[in-house]
């Protein structure tokens, strides 16, 4: 009896356990099914025949695209297509995103797949045509860039590529390169600013933005951009080149300026020249290097060399007053009196309150005036430091050479030369007159000059008699008498 009872109880226990296990398994299956319904995006199961789910999917995709979350949008579309390869609108949306990102081959495949499912859809055919235009325009723009036709290349990028592919990183970077090439540095800064808002660690954007600030001579900001890029990638070749190149340029420039302040002008000149060859295209900085070089050369009295540097500075910035002044000083050194007056007058007009410029202009005008009077030293062929005895000897020699009685065949010319020689001696042979002449005073008036200058023959002027010791060589007549000293 006992074994039978025990068997029945054991069998009942087994049946109960099996039933409980079955119920538990059924519960688990239902739980998993409910979780799938609740947790998996219902949009993945969107069908052409289920417009509610499809609308939700495409609304979310559109929102992600609007927020520039292209990867999330593509993930949703990929999942939807994997769940239902016939979901035509998913292909169209995915093609559009690929087109905006200029992933043209993938975009073309998706447009063609959509048109297989929905042939004759004009909107898709139009977008496919736009894709082909953008793809061709990007290739053309890149070729034009390589051939240095920057203006046309920029037109293709702005008017075609970025119109149909506004999220194309390749096109954006090319546009920044083109803006740098055409020296639109503010435009390059603006474009890279947008790129860094999307990705603050974009190394290319940091590099190009730094270059734009560099070419505007905003060197501190440029260095900060290069440094940030190098912190992200210490081995980035272009960033290293830009950073250390700028550091070396600033070091060389400071060394040149320090040498000017120390009076080491020749060394400063060499360092200014060395800095200029480091980047000939850096106009915003080189204008100051040329000006510094010009000033150093003027101080050294190298007027001819200074002219070139001052002119280079003015070629970069024609409104640079200091360059005008320095070029005026350089022209004084090379005795270009009229050119000096012209430059200094222009500088004075731009800065009428600057008394230093006014004084330099007055000096140039005085030099110009002096240049138009007779140079008595030159007429006698003596230096400005000649002694009175040297002046007398030169006068005697020239007077003998040009005495009209000794130049019968060219008497008129001889008389003119003789007048000049006599007038020169009248000034330089008189200590007081010579001092006044050397000061730049106009002493020609009242010297007994008649039209052509000093007249030793009379005719309304003073009558002079000249006697040489021992008489005029070879005899003398004709009313000229003899010279005496």
What do these coordinates show?
With 485 residues, the protein is mainly α. It folds into 3 domains: 145 residues, Serine Threonine Protein Phosphatase 5, Tetratricopeptide repeat, CATH 1.25.40; 91 residues, Tetratricopeptide repeat domain (Serine Threonine Protein Phosphatase 5, Tetratricopeptide repeat, Alpha Horseshoe), CATH 1.25.40; 110 residues, Orthogonal Bundle (Helix Hairpins). Helix content is 72%, strand content 0%. The chain has 22 helices and no strands. α7 runs antiparallel to α8 and α8 packs parallel to α10. The longest helix has 38 residues. The radius of gyration is 47 Å and the shape is elongated. This is J domain-containing protein. Keywords: Endoplasmic reticulum, Repeat, Signal, TPR repeat. It is found in: Endoplasmic reticulum lumen.
Q: Could you name the CATH topology of the largest domain?
A: Serine Threonine Protein Phosphatase 5, Tetratricopeptide repeat
CATH architecture of the largest domain: Alpha Horseshoe
- Alpha plus pi helix count: 22
Q: Give the low-pLDDT segments.
A: 32-51, 448-455, 457-485
Per the principal axes of the C-alpha atoms, what is the gross shape?
A: elongated
Say what oligomer this is.
single chain
Intertermini distance: 178 Å
The CATH superfamily title of the largest domain: Tetratricopeptide repeat domain
Mean pLDDT over all positions: 85
InterPro entries: DnaJ_domain, DnaJ_domain_CS, J_dom_sf, TPR-like_helical_dom_sf, TPR_2, TPR_rpt
Pfam family, one: TPR_8
Domain J: 375-441
TPR repeats: 88-121, 203-236
């Amino acid at each position: 009896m006992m074994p039978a009872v025990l068997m029945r109880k054991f069998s009942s226990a087994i049946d109960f356990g099996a039933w409980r296990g079955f119920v538990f398994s059924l519960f688990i299956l239902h739980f998993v099914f409910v979780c799938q319904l609740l947790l998996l995006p219902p949009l993945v199961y969107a069908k052409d025949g289920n417009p509610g789910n499809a609308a939700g999917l495409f609304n979310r995709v559109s929102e992600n695209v609007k927020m520039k979350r292209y990867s999330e949008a593509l993930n949703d579309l990929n999942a939807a297509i994997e769940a239902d390869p016939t979901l035509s609108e998913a292909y169209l949306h995915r093609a559009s995103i690929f087109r905006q990102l200029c992933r043209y081959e993938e975009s073309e495949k998706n447009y063609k797949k959509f048109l297989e499912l929905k042939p004759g859809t004009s909107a898709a055919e139009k977008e496919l045509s736009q894709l082909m235009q953008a793809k061709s325009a990007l290739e053309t723009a890149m070729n034009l860039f390589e051939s240095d036709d920057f203006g046309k290349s920029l037109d293709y990028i702005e008017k075609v590529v970025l119109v149909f592919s506004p999220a194309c990183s390749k096109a954006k970077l090319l546009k920044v390169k083109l803006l740098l090439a055409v020296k639109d540095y503010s435009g390059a800064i603006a474009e890279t600013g947008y790129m860094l808002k999307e990705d603050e660690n974009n190394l290319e954007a940091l590099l190009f933005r730094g270059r734009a600030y560099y070419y505007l001579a905003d060197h501190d900001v440029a260095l900060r951009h290069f440094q940030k890029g190098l912190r992200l990638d210490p081995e980035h070749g272009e960033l290293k080149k830009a950073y250390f190149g700028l550091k070396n340029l600033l070091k060389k420039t400071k060394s040149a300026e320090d040498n000017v302040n120390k009076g080491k002008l020749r060394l400063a000149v060499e360092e200014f020249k060395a800095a200029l060859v480091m980047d000939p295209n850096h106009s915003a900085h080189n204008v100051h290097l040329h000006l510094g070089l010009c000033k150093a050369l003027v101080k050294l009295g190298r007027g001819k060399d200074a002219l070139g540097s001052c002119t280079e500075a003015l070629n970069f910035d024609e409104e640079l007053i200091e360059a005008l002044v320095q070029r005026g000083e350089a022209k004084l050194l090379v005795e270009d009196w009229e050119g000096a007056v012209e430059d200094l007058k222009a500088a004075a007009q731009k800065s009428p309150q600057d008394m230093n410029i006014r004084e330099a202009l007055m000096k140039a005008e005085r030099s110009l005036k002096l240049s138009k009077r007779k140079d008595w030293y030159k007429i006698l062929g003596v230096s400005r430091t000649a002694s009175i005895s040297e002046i007398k000897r030169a006068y005697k020699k020239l007077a003998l050479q040009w005495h009209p009685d000794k130049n019968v065949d060219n008497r008129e010319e001889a008389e003119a030369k003789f007048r000049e020689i006599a007038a020169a001696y009248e000034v330089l042979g008189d200590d007081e007159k010579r001092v006044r002449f050397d000061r730049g005073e106009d002493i020609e008036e009242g010297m007994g000059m008649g039209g052509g200058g000093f007249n030793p023959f009379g005719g309304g002027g003073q009558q002079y008699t000249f006697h040489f010791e021992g008489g005029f060589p070879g005899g003398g007549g004709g009313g000229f008498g003899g010279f005496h000293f």
